[in-house]
Write a structure and sequence with these properties.
mainly alpha, Hydantoin permease, globular
Length: 442
Amino acid sequence: MEKNKRDSFGTRWGFILACIGSAVGMGNIWMFPTRVSRFGGGSFLIWYFLFVVLVGFTGVIEEMSFGRASRSGPVDAFGKACRSRGFEKLGEAVGMIPVLGSLAMAIGYTVVMGWIFKYTAGVFLGSTLAADSVDEFSASFGSMASSFGNNGWQLSAAAAAFAILAFGVGRGIEKVNKVLMPVFFFLFLGLGIYILFQPGAAQGYRYIFRIDRELLFSPEVIIYAMGQAFFSLSVAGNGTLIYGSYLGDDEDIPASARNVAIFDTLAAVLAAFVIIPAMATVGAQLDQGGPGLMFIFLPNLFRGMAGGTVIAAVFFVAVTFAGITSLINLYEAPIATVQEKCHLDRRKACAVVGVAGVATSICIQGIVSGWMDVVSIYICPLGAGIASVMFFWVLGKDFAQKETARGRQKPLGAWFYPLGKYVFSGMCFLVLIVGAIMGGIG
């Protein structure tokens, strides 16, 4: 595949931290602890870890390698993959699926980041923990999450993201992730240590590690563990692929994929170690996930804890850092595509995508949950599946082995190609089908 001069990451760890930042997001914080709690603690974790290994050592490696080989976003990458078969234009058209999926997810995420910005600021201004009951917290969140209910903070979140993106890959995305990701882990680790010494927390830890043999072999547990791992590692044919396109040929991609999988899993486990024991300190059952957990039940919990304001401040600042790094990754694929196809410079491409994305995000505030469901259930696994088919099936074994071996002292074992071609590709479409039937598993 042809190589074009373009922006790039300056250091190996800058790239790894950017990929970790793209993967660490709300799924780690507001969904993973709930799944662990709901599906029997260790019974869920065993399957989750297995699927993380599978996705990390097939899908993540594939998308990074595909991006580096093409030196482009999904549209041109898919087009180049199909060129030798005479279907370049069809490949480019298909490549728009993950790009539009990334933009649609970014639009929904912008709404969520507006909520996070408001709650983070509200901790310091006194409004976030001001309610006196769960019902009042719920009413406050419902008002904010209604149509046009949070315009100012949402615009602030978008402005922060596009200010970073306008500086490019090395001077913007990389530098921000080098700061925000280490601080995120430091803050969550501090919260975990604090919760460890709270009365009743031990019950939460015991629950996390217990193994229920009946649940261990439950198809429902296995399916949701698969979905959690799949979506947590952000394989969708867009964000990981575009970050890979900024890599040099000396980068050891399998080693980077391993580090991304490890730190993304660590972030999820840290969140579980904070939230599940915290709920146990007040004898509460963690059965509420999603936005309700973060914006209703956790603020109510923090309000009643000793030092609750400080705990809430640390928590929401950490969540802000995790969210903003994910948001810039989601907008990067559409921005890169506009640059490639419209031949615009970086800042003009940011302006085009920013205006379209922010305007749409303002309009969908009241329906953002349904919006995000459609994108995550249908478009994300479809994009991942198409990218996998392009890499493993269209470009073939020789190409896959050559590109994954680039930058390594020895190539990957013979296991990689069949595992990626048959198991991971099949898994992408299984996630799509099962997600559609069950109303989402991510």
